[in-house]
């Protein structure tokens, strides 16, 4: 009796054991994705290189609200421009459209995991197609519903849905990255325009000063005190500086047109207007290196892309396992449309379908290799993104440090050049030096003043670049009120 039962059980074991083995293999088909690890230093290299006392304490960057970082520049015109860019910039709108598309694809992929129910109705009139091959025409009218549901035993559908959702999350990160990029470009372009305005004003003031000198020199020539050569020299300086002013006019027009594109306006109708360069220069704390990996939206998008590629490897591997679907249908079928809804015309059917390709010419293996290659590419892109992020932060930190030192040195140069021009003008009027000495002193002062403006402009550009490199701004009030007791949670920040 036991032998007979054992004999009957063998066919069941032969059918069930392979299925159980397939389920186990499916559960182990893909391992969780592991992002590359980086040995992060306790602080940025430029922080360690900063002079003693040039750094203040601030909370880690991820604890700070990002907010409207551009408001720390305290410039209403800049505020309005960035708000217009947020609402009308075409790059932001394109990124938002790609995000909406990715979210729709995610919903579509997730819908494959739900039961599929449909209604159907139809009628067929035929001859010679029934069981008796009757040549007489007959009619068949049907109405009912269909039901199907694919059992996701091996995780193919769930992984496809997960990959689509991760793609949508990556697109959300890219939208944030695009928005931050556009905001930074608007700020940098606007600040460059204001720097050109200040330089134009300086050059035009210099032109007026040279014109006054030209009038004086022409008067002295008529009186016989100086030669015609002195007049020609001053005329040359006037024309040279007027040419520089026109070059700056052209540069300003280009920057204004670039701003028009960024805010979504036609360049022909856009006008920023001139104004004083009274924009504040905020100090942005860099935080600890690890915050770069959590704050930057492009790195977050790269992480999501890696996880999505990992999920697609699982989808490709699940293709080796059978597809199992449950199907069903019910309704009415009748040769006469008047009898269609009678109880005697009812029909129904249920079934199950198992499909497993046996020979596909290597298609499934190629799919796994393709998905694995995409995963390798996503990992490489993520590593590159992280390395570039740290490079950008170090670049801006070094720029801010060196520019701060250069600004102090340049201020001394401007002060000395201004004093030299004052003394030279007095000595020239008293006939103690030649006109060439006076012109050299004025050229030196103008050059140093313009250099000082360019250094100041570079400081603003580097500050905006620093904000972008770190993934956003900080609440200045929260930084100022950061507690000083928790040394573990605090970092050196400029």
Short description:
The chain has 494 residues and is of the alpha+beta class. The chain has helices at residues 2-27, 45-49, 76-88, 90-111, 156-222, 228-262, 290-295, 297-318, 363-429, 435-470, 476-480; strands at residues 56-58, 116-126, 138-151, 323-334, 346-355, 491-493.
Second-tier CATH architecture of the largest domain:
Up-down Bundle
At CATH level 3, the topology of the largest domain is: Outer membrane efflux proteins (OEP)
Proportion of strand residues: 5-15%
Helix content bin: 55-70%
Largest sheet: 4 strands, antiparallel
Strand order in space, largest sheet:
2-3-4-5
Structure notes:
- The structure is a single chain.
- The chain is α+β, with helices and mostly antiparallel strands and 494 residues long.
- It has two domains: 31-113 and 154-321 and 363-493, Outer membrane efflux proteins (OEP) (Up-down Bundle); 117-151 and 322-355, Outer membrane efflux proteins (OEP) (Single Sheet).
- The chain has helices spanning 2-27, 45-49, 76-88, 90-111, 156-222, 228-262, 290-295, 297-318, 363-429, 435-470, 476-480, and strands spanning 56-58, 116-126, 138-151, 323-334, 346-355, 491-493.
- The protein has a four-stranded antiparallel β-sheet with strand order 2-3-4-5, with no helix packed on it. A two-stranded antiparallel sheet has the order 1-6.
- Helix 4 (90-111) packs antiparallel against helix 5 (156-222).
- The longest helix has 67 residues, at 156-222.
- The termini are far apart.
- The model is unreliable at 1-9, 14-29, 52-65 and 475-494 (pLDDT under 50).
């Amino acid at each position: 009796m036991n032998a007979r039962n054992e004999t009957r059980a063998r066919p069941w074991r032969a059918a069930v054991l392979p299925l159980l083995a397939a389920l186990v293999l499916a559960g182990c088909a893909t391992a969780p994705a592991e992002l590359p690890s980086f040995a992060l230093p306790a602080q940025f290299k430029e922080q360690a290189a900063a002079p003693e006392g040039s750094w203040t304490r601030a909370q880690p960057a991820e604890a700070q609200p990002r907010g409207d970082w551009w408001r720390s520049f305290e410039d209403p015109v800049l505020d309005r421009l960035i708000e217009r860019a947020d609402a009308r910039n075409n790059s932001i709108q394109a990124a938002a459209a790609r995000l909406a598309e990715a979210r729709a694809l995610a919903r579509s992929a997730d819908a494959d995991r739900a039961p599929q129910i449909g209604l159907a109705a139809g009628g067929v009139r035929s001859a010679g197609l029934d069981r008796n091959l009757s040549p007489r025409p007959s009619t068949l009218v049907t109405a009912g519903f269909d039901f199907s549901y694919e059992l996701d035993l091996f995780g193919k559908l769930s992984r496809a849905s997960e990959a689509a959702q991760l793609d949508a999350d990556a697109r959300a990160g890219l939208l944030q990255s695009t928005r931050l990029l556009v905001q930074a470009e608007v700020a940098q372009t606007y600040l460059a325009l204001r720097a050109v305005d200040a330089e134009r004003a300086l050059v035009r003031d210099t032109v007026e000063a040279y014109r006054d000198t030209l009038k004086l020199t022409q008067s002295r020539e008529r009186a016989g005190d100086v030669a015609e050569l002195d007049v020609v020299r001053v005329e040359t300086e006037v024309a040279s500086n007027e040419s520089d002013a026109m070059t700056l006019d052209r540069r300003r027009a280009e920057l204004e047109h670039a701003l028009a594109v960024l805010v979504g306006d036609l360049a022909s109708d856009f006008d920023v207007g001139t104004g004083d360069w009274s924009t504040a220069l905020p100090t942005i704390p860099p935080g600890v290196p690890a915050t770069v990996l959590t704050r930057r939206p492009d790195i977050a998008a790269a992480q999501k892309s890696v996880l999505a590629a990992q999920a697609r490897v699982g989808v490709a591997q699940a293709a080796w396992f059978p597809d199992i679907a449950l199907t069903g249908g019910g309704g009415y079928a009748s040769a006469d449309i008047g009898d269609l809804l009678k109880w005697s015309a009812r029909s129904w059917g249920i079934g199950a379908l198992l499909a497993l390709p046996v020979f596909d010419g290597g298609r499934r293996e190629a799919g796994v290799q393709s998905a694995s290659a995409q995963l390798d590419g996503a990992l490489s892109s993520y590593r590159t993104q992280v390395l570039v992020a740290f490079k950008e932060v170090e670049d801006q930190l070094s720029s801010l440090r060196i520019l701060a030192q250069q600004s102090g040195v340049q201020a001394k140069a401007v002060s000395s050049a201004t004093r030299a021009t004052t003394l030279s003008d007095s000595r020239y009027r008293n006939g103690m030096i030649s006109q060439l000495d006076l012109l050299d002193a004025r050229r030196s002062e103008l050059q140093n003043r313009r250099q000082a403006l360019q250094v100041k402009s570079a400081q603003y550009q580097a500050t905006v670049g620093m904000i972008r490199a770190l993934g956003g701004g900080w609440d200045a009030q929260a930084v100022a009120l950061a507690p000083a007791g928790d040394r573990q949670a605090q970092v050196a920040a400029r």
